[in-house]
Amino acid sequence: QVQLAESGGGLVQAGGSLRLSCVVSGGAFRTNGMAWYRQAPGKQRELVASISSIGSTYYTDSVKARFTISRDNARNTVYLQMNSLKPEDTAVYSCRYGAMIWGKGIQVTVSS
Questions:
Q1: pLDDT at position 27, please?
Q2: Fewer CB in a 10 Å sphere around the end CB: N or C, the chain?
Q3: Which residues contact 15 (CB under 8 A, 6 or more apart)?
Q4: Which residues contact 56 (CB under 8 A, 6 or more apart)?
Q5: 65: part of which helix (H) or strand (E)?
Q6: How far apart, in Å, are the Cα atoms of 46 and each of 7, 38, 89?
């Protein structure tokens, strides 16, 4: 059974940084794409960034040049480095393994 465990969220001031981690257990991490999504109150969940099994990346326009997704196959972990955070980045962030397996999510709050 594949399980995902996110960490690294919290409260930060605008302009600050956070690094989210998502550790995958029980799966074939190396051969699966990973993604980070977020959902703000009253809004639909949106794809923030993704990384394929070979390291190809995608970012939604609003986070380009501020966020970086990366993966460490030796640690079965995907990261989301978030810099220059804005209040509008406030949301619950969730990682996704492959196409269908989700973490529980972690709160990121950016104060102005």
A1: 85
A2: N
A3: 84, 85
A4: none
A5: none
A6: 19, 6, 11
User: Are 8 and 81 a contacting pair, CB within 8 Å?
Assistant: no
What tokens were used for 70? 């990366």
Gyration radius of the chain's alpha carbons: 13
Q: Which residues of the chain have pLDDT under 50?
A: none
Residue corresponding to tokens 């804005």: 86
Which segments within the chain are labelled E, that is strand? 3-7, 10-13, 18-25, 34-39, 46-51, 57-59, 67-72, 77-82, 91-97, 101-102, 106-111
User: Which residue matches tokens 């550790």?
Assistant: 23
pLDDT at 69: 98
Question: Residue 89 — left, alpha, or beta (φ > 0 → left; ψ -120 to 50 → alpha)?
Answer: alpha
Residue 14 in contact with residue 87, Cβ under 8 Å? yes
